[in-house]
């Protein structure tokens, strides 16, 4: 089910017409549910996934499907003993640096948890990195340090 929901979200993000269908609040619910039913049959999704998508549609929450999918993914990962970590750097990490960061992150997750690292590049952080570990957030970027210094200069004690 997790893979199928990711597939639906990916399709919605890549197909403008499908996304509009999913997010159109003016469409009658019966028409939308009939369209979802056809979509699920055509996509050959499992009964569980089809029923889930229909319930989300019945409750008028299809525009929230991506957020729902992210939360569901986190729950599935937690049940498998995995922790998702998002590392953002100013420049891409090479393999050795990524391995070092992954090893360092193991100390910030529960014992026997598997660390799943995804990386992002954001040149605005100048240097260093930001790390999201579940609900924890570590800001080790140069941008945050620069902002602290600017604040101290602008507001002397």
Distance between the termini: 56 Å
Q: Roughly what percent helix?
A: 55-70%
Structural class: alpha+beta
Question: What gyration radius follows from the Cα positions, in whole Å?
Answer: 21 Å
* Low-confidence runs: none
Strand content: 15-25%
Global outline: elongated
Report the mean per-residue pLDDT as an integer. Answer: 92
Continuous helix count: 7
Count of DSSP strands: 4
List the strand order in the largest sheet. Answer: 2-1-3-4
Count of the domains:
2
**Major pleated sheet:** 4 strands, mixed
Tell me the series of helices and strands, N- to C-terminal: HHHHHEHEEEH
Account of the 3D structure:
By secondary structure, the protein is of the alpha+beta class. The chain is built from seven helices and four strands, in the order αααααβαβββα. α1 packs across α2, α1 packs antiparallel against α5 (65-79) and α3 packs antiparallel against α4. The chain starts with a helix and ends with a helix. 12% of the residues are buried.
List the topology elements.
Blueprint: H1 2-14, H2 16-23, H3 29-43, H4 47-58, H5 65-79, E1 82-89, H6 95-105, E2 114-121, E3 128-133, E4 136-141, H7 142-154
Parallel strand pairs: 1-2
Antiparallel strand pairs: 1-3, 3-4
Helix pairs in contact: 1-2, 1-5, 3-4
């Amino acid at each position: 089910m997790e893979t199928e929901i990711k597939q639906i979200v990916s399709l919605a993000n890549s197909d403008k017409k499908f996304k509009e269908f999913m997010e159109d609040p003016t469409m009658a619910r019966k028409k939308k549910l009939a369209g979802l039913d056809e979509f699920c049959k055509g996509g050959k999704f499992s009964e569980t996934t089809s029923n889930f998508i229909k319930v989300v549609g019945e409750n008028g929450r299809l525009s929230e499907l991506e957020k729902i999918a992210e939360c569901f993914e986190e729950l599935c990962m937690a049940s498998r003993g995995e922790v998702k970590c998002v590392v953002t750097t100013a420049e891409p990490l090479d393999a050795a640096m990524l391995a070092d960061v992954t090893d360092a992150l193991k100390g910030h997750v529960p014992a026997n948890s598997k660390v799943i690292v995804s990386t992002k590049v954001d040149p605005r952080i100048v240097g260093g990195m930001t790390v999201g570990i579940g609900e924890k957030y570590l800001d080790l970027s140069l941008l945050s340090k620069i902002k602290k210094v600017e604040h101290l200069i602008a507001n002397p004690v």
